[in-house]
Write a structure and sequence with these properties.
With 258 residues, the protein is mostly helical. The chain contains 14 helices and no strands. Helix 8 runs antiparallel to helix 9 and helix 12 packs antiparallel against helix 13. The longest helix is centred in the middle third of the chain and has 18 residues. The radius of gyration is 18 Å and the shape is globular.
Length: 258
């Protein structure tokens, strides 16, 4: 789909959007995060100067997601704030909800899950049916990682099993991490291994994160190949510049070697 978009794009703007979209999607598997972030930021600035608020906001949001995967949290926060400012002036409710979700998630990353929960709940109360499904999935992710695993499971319970949208890949990862948080390491490892590699999606650093979480589960389970799995995760994340996932992989390796 991205290739087709690139082929038919006529205007310089649409060609730039196609290039940035390709960078974002490739960043979900092996694409280098630093370059992808640069491309998205350049597009955002171009759109700002051209008064194209929707494209500007989406580009800042994509840049923020990429920076978060690369553990550039200060830059992620700044780009996320610019995304909210731009999108608040448009009718792009879904994208604005995604930017506010990232804002809350970054708060959770600072060790303040309660404050993050308040931000999620405040935005959720204003959302209509459309954006709610993906927003709730992202809320569940923050709870699974930093807050209450039972709350995360509850948030996901209302989602239809056949639901297909941009958060589908994320949900599979969350469900596995909820199992990990509940110390069902076998279920977590099996679920993570069932997620195939190489599937492009709109989540920067997704594959590196999958491999790192798989390594963490393997170590907790006492898997005989845990050391190899952890080293593979570290190598993959390092090549991509996915520092957040690399840190998780190194945590797993540290547990396994001590």
């Amino acid at each position: 789909l991205v290739d087709e978009f690139s082929r038919i794009a006529k205007s310089p703007l649409m060609r730039s959007v196609a290039i940035a979209t390709r960078a974002l999607v490739e960043a979900s598997v092996e694409g280098e995060l630093g370059e992808a972030g640069r491309i998205c930021e350049e597009l955002a600035e171009h759109c700002r100067l051209a008064n194209l608020a929707h494209f500007e906001g989406v580009s800042w949001l994509n840049a923020a997601l990429i920076h978060a995967a690369a553990a550039r949290m200060d830059r992620a926060k700044a780009c996320g704030a610019w995304a909210i400012d731009a999108l608040a002036a448009t009718s792009s409710r879904t994208e604005l909800a995604a930017a506010r979700s990232l804002e809350a998630t970054l708060v959770a990353w600072t060790g303040r899950p309660g404050d993050a929960r308040q931000l999620f709940e405040s935005t959720l109360s204003e959302l209509e049916a459309g954006p709610r499904v993906e927003f709730v999935s992202e809320y569940a992710e923050a709870e699974a990682l930093f807050g209450d695993a039972d709350r995360a499971a509850h948030l996901l319970a209302a989602r239809r099993r056949d639901e297909l949208n941009s958060s589908t890949f994320l949900v599979r990862l969350i469900e596995a991490f909820v199992a990990f948080r509940k110390r069902d390491f076998a279920q977590a490892f099996t679920a993570l291994c069932d997620i195939e590699l190489g599937h492009h999606n709109p989540l920067p650093g997704y594959q590196s994160r999958l491999l790192a979480t798989r390594a963490l589960a393997a170590v907790a389970l006492g898997h005989e190949d845990a050391l190899v799995i952890a080293q593979h995760a570290i190598d993959a994340a390092s090549r991509q510049g996915a520092r957040t996932a690399e840190a998780v992989g190194r945590l797993a390796l540290g547990y396994e070697t001590h």
